[in-house]
Amino acid sequence: MLETNMTFRQFLLHDYRNEGLEKDLVFLLEDIATACAIISNHVRDGAFKGNLGVAGSTNIQGEDQKQLDVIADEEFIRHCSNCSRVAALVSEEVDEVHWLKKETKAGDYIVYFDPLDGSSNLDVNLSVGSIFSIVQIAEPIDTSTDASVLIKGSKQICAGYSVYGPSTSLVITTGHSVNGFTHQQGTGEFRLTFKDMTIPETTSEFAINASRYRLWDEPIRAYFDECLAGVDGARGSNTNMRWTASMVADIHRILTRGGVFLYPMDEGNRATGGKLRLMYEANPMGFIVEQAGGSASTGTQRILDVTPTSHHQRVPVIMGSKDEVARIDAFHGKS
Ligand code: P6P
């Protein structure tokens, strides 16, 4: 029985006893939670340690790395490497796959992560976060090629994110509902504060970077125009818009009160297939959103069904309240 305020360890032991969560996955998730708590401290003390600025390097995405991007990446690598069953790490911040084993075996894990998502918000003190996804390999994989980590999102066994906001939240799914924890000052424990998170099927709130309107394809413009027409348009009701430029914050809001998040393919990102990354942003968030009763689409297909072609691949993202995603898909002619 899940009880509010139970610790993350008690929650994991509950799933170990009742949902067959593997012992090694319990330890790995505790290590990831520890990494998130440490990253949260670094973020909150960033101004005192001169960490808010750029690191003077760029990542595979061609983005200026913040010092905290590098610190967060190191924390994820350090903590995930504790687990003897982690075969490989795939980080947004690093070009190549970080192989931890030469010889893998059935049951090993691959961890994909964006160690600090939304880091452009750091120096303006807005919420940022970490996103992770875990896949378990069914048989040994070839560690001589990075192609071995290209596994569909539908194969995830666990996904989660941490939001470094007014409080530090940790939200995870192991395929049996979605549960949210809050980091408690003093004890340092993550405690269960949001049991069985579910996304309302309908919403009047959408999240999109509206400055890209001129770049959007017609279906997204038509959907956006309908939202703005509100009660005077086909929608017949008014809407509200939010955009934080931090996926973890927008998705956490949607998990908490409903809504839909869009980062569509447009003229500005078509050459790269979209803006957001499949393996460590769209897939984990898509798994969480679906487990909470929502939908996650590229506009033309379910995100978790996308066959990966590169571990830094980008995809269009539309996810949140089920009925709203269906409405947007309909604009794409996908019923
Ligand atoms: P834009 C952050 O860089 C991120 O990857 C997501 O967290 C966020 O939703 C999006 O990009 C913001 O993009 O174009 O509004 O800056």
From TrEMBL:
Keywords on record: Carbohydrate metabolism, Cytoplasm, Hydrolase, Magnesium, Metal-binding
Protein location: Cytoplasm
Positions bound to Mg(2+) 2: D114, D117, E281
Domain Fructose-1-6-bisphosphatase class I N-terminal positions: 7-193
InterPro entries xrefs: FBPase_C_dom, FBPase_class-1, FBPase_N, FBPtase
Gene Ontology terms, MF aspect: fructose 1,6-bisphosphate 1-phosphatase activity; magnesium ion binding
UniProt GO cellular component terms: cytosol
GO BP annotations, alphabetical order: fructose 1,6-bisphosphate metabolic process; fructose 6-phosphate metabolic process; fructose metabolic process; gluconeogenesis; sucrose biosynthetic process
Superkingdom per UniProt: Bacteria
Chain residues that bind substrate: D117, G118, S119, S120, N209, K275
EC number in record: 3.1.3.11
Catalytic activity: beta-D-fructose 1,6-bisphosphate + H2O = beta-D-fructose 6-phosphate + phosphate
Cofactor note: Binds 2 magnesium ions per subunit.
Domain Fructose-1-6-bisphosphatase class 1 C-terminal as annotated: residue spans: 199-332
Binding site for Mg(2+) 1: E92, D114, L116
Pathway: Carbohydrate biosynthesis
CDD domains: FBPase
Cofactor: Mg(2+)
Family annotation (NCBIfam families): PRK09293.1-3
Similarity section: Belongs to the FBPase class 1 family.
Subunit: Homotetramer.
Name of this protein: Fructose-1,6-bisphosphatase class 1
Organism of origin: Planktotalea frisia
Name of the coding gene: fbp_2
